[in-house]
Here is the input.
Amino acid sequence: MKRATTGRILKIGLLISLISATVCTSLYACMSMNGYTSTVDLSKVDLVQLEEPEPEDPVAVIRTSMGDISVRLFPEEAPNAVKNFEELANAGFYDDTYVFQLEPKVYFAAGSKTPDGELGDAYQEEHESIEREISDNLWPFRGALCALTTKSDTGFWKMFLDKVKYYNGSRFILVDSIEFTDDLIKEMYGDNPDNKVARAFEQLGGVPNYSQQMTVFGQTYAGFDVLDAITEAATTGEENHKTPAEEIRIRTVEITTYEKAPAPVTTGTDAPGSTTATTTTTAAE
Here is the structure.
């Protein structure tokens, strides 16, 4: 029964309408979705995703059937999500798993043992009950690696007192980007032309409405062409639950450090935190 419930929550949790972040004042940004509001002091935000990785920084090389995506991990900002992801990757959990959902050009969800996103016999309570971690320094920019929120600890009084807890599991999302219209950009900046978060979204792309709503624990630095290829793949299924028309697999996830990671091939794709545009174009095996 627990596994079936988790599967239902997964599908419900992915039905996220694309709404924008709203800037409230010149110093604070307010993100609101589904009745939940988060306030961030922009003067204290450190956009670590835009920084060049250091040699010893942990990275994950996500090898897919369409190529490789290299992601810097942030254990200082989301320690539990990173630990969970690294443990699963090192144990081979992601070997030959599926990209099970995608919103064209916006994101893809992956890491399930079945094409429909279910875990089945692979369900492990200790790896599917990681409390959501929200950091003011991590945002759903293009290339962000996010832990999929799959369940919540709710109840009338918990909701009334704003003490609802949300949990992540093994499955993950890689964010691409919505279209940034002039009206959306104006709304993000609000009354603050120096809003550095809004500026980063404008320059890099991403999905602003996911801000402060799910655990961000990594940032792509190479393989943006592969990210685009996956999110632009043909889809099938219902409007709110699109799946790849042709199977896309996660071959494996390799945990290493930036200095030891395979050197990416330069192809001209822009990447946050990189002075030279690089992307991995390893052919599928």
